């Protein structure tokens, strides 16, 4: 799994660092496949999956209830019951936010990832677009496997 687009998270981590990490990971996977050609290696592209959900949460049934994909409510940061969490300070239930806190996604995103990984392992389609433009930074990114 590569790193999701954490520059879109409330924490706003470095886009360049994420792209660098994902590029190095891709290189390591390539080298491993060359060295061990009989090994079965699966890559999962969380970067494009998250971007797809951030731009259009209705793409997947698990995330269709998201109302806020680019922010979080600090009052939920310590909540451990994501399915039922509601705080009047936040206006919406936690399950309607992509971000549980500044770095971590809520359970609908985890469920989407699980469904997409299971589909990939069964030999089905991959999640999200294979290539695209990060609209926030207007730079090309690649999600090839």
Major sheet details: 2 strands, antiparallel
Question: What class do helices, strands and sheet pairing give?
Answer: mainly alpha
Percent range for helical residues? 25-40%
- Report mean pLDDT, rounded to a whole number: 85
How far do the termini sit from each other?
11 Å
Radius of gyration: 16 Å
> Spatial order of the strands in the main sheet?
1-2
The proportion of residues in beta strands is 5-15%
The shape, in one word, is elongated
Please give a structural write-up.
This protein is mostly helical and 145 residues long. It has one domain. It is built from three helices and two strands. The protein has a two-stranded antiparallel ribbon. The longest helix is centred in the first third of the chain and has 21 residues, at 15-35. It is elongated and about 55 Å long. It starts with 14 loop residues before the first helix and ends with a strand. Residues 127-145 have low confidence and may be disordered.
Keywords:
single chain; 145 residues; mainly alpha; two-stranded antiparallel sheet; 2 strands; 6% strand; disordered C terminus
């Amino acid at each position: 799994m590569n790193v999701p687009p954490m520059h879109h998270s409330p924490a706003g981590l470095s886009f360049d660092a994420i792209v660098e990490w994902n590029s190095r990971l891709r290189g390591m996977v390539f080298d491993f496949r060359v060295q061990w050609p009989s090994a079965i290696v699966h890559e999962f592209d969380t970067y494009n999956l998250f971007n797809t959900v951030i731009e259009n949460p209705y793409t997947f049934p698990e995330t269709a209830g998201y109302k806020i994909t680019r922010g979080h409510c600090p009052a939920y940061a310590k909540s451990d019951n994501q399915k039922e969490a509601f705080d009047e300070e936040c206006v919406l239930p936690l399950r309607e936010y992509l971000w549980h806190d500044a770095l971590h996604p809520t359970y609908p995103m985890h469920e989407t990832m699980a469904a997409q990984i299971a589909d990939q392992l069964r030999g089905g389609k991959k999640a999200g677009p294979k290539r695209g433009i990060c609209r926030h930074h207007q730079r090309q990114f690649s999600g090839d496997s």
